[in-house]
Inverse folding.
């Protein structure tokens, strides 16, 4: 390993460790201060949407970023206050008001490409993050959200290192030339193992309180989280390739932006929520 590669590796590992401990500390603090979780999700939404919207200017597309942020935050706080029945109204207002504001601002016909990008951002980074709150509301504990995040991140991490060490065959070169089949399989395997270990430890020590969840459920959840998480990763990779970017930002050294860290979790969260919603006795 040459000096530059070694320095990049050390920075990536150090950044990952700091993010993991900071995330764990903040999530544990959400036990004490329930309002902290929607505030943290709101910060993720704002930063994520800025990373999502701003690069489109390279394609000559200018989304209504402030309106997108407003409607995305509205989804998050609707969820926090248990007002999900107004979700449809929120979406109707979004599709109606954004073109009106575009027309008033420019005096021209609405830019429907920019409208599509704006609305996609709201769904991607407003609707999906709201499931972090729905998971806590449904299961009555922040511990299941901690479980989801760290299981997903463990799979991402092991997929990265497996791909670096053993990767030979490209997974989908058109979307992500650095991802390999070996890395993908390694990530899936380690996600399943991590889900089983954390699940059984949580059940033994009483951190995961739902009694009907068995070891087989954690195996299934591990597999589903791994597969859907990798789809989320590829989704964001396709977005970056379309815009000619390597990372969504530079907020986190050697990791990129916020989107680079939460892309897998965004897709895994709805699946995790509906698994418990549909299969609970």
């Amino acid at each position: 390993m040459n000096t530059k590669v070694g320095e990049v590796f050390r920075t990536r590992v150090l950044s990952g460790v700091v993010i993991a401990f900071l995330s764990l500390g903040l999530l544990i603090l959400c036990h004490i201060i329930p309002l902290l979780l929607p505030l943290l999700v709101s910060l993720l939404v704002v930063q994520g949407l800025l990373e999502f919207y701003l690069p489109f200017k390279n394609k000559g597309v200018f989304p209504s970023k402030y309106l997108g942020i407003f409607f995305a935050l509205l989804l998050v706080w609707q969820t926090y206050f248990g007002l999900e029945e107004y979700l449809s109204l929120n979406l109707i207002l979004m599709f109606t008001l954004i073109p009106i504001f575009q027309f008033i601002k420019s005096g021209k016909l609405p830019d429907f490409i920019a409208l599509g990008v704006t609305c996609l951002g709201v769904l991607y980074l407003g609707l999906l993050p709201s499931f972090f709150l729905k998971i806590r509301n449904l299961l009555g504990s922040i511990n299941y959200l901690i479980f989801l995040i760290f299981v997903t991140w463990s799979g991402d991490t092991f997929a990265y290192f497996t791909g670096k060490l053993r990767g030979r065959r490209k997974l989908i070169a058109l979307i992500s030339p650095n991802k390999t089949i070996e890395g993908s399989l390694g990530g899936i395997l380690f996600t399943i193992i991590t889900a089983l270990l954390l699940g059984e430890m949580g059940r033994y020590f009483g951190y995961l309180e739902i009694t009907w969840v068995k070891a087989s459920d954690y195996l299934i959840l591990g597999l589903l989280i791994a597969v859907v998480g990798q789809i989320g990763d590829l989704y964001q990779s396709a977005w970056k390739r379309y815009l000619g970017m390597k990372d969504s930002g530079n907020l986190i050294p050697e990791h990129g932006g916020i989107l680079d860290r939460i892309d897998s979790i965004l897709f895994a969260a709805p699946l995790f929520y509906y698994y418990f919603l549909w299969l609970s006795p």
The mean pLDDT is 90. DSSP finds ten helices and two strands in the chain. The chain has two domains: 1-29+141-281, 34-127. The first strand starts at residue 170 and ends at 172.
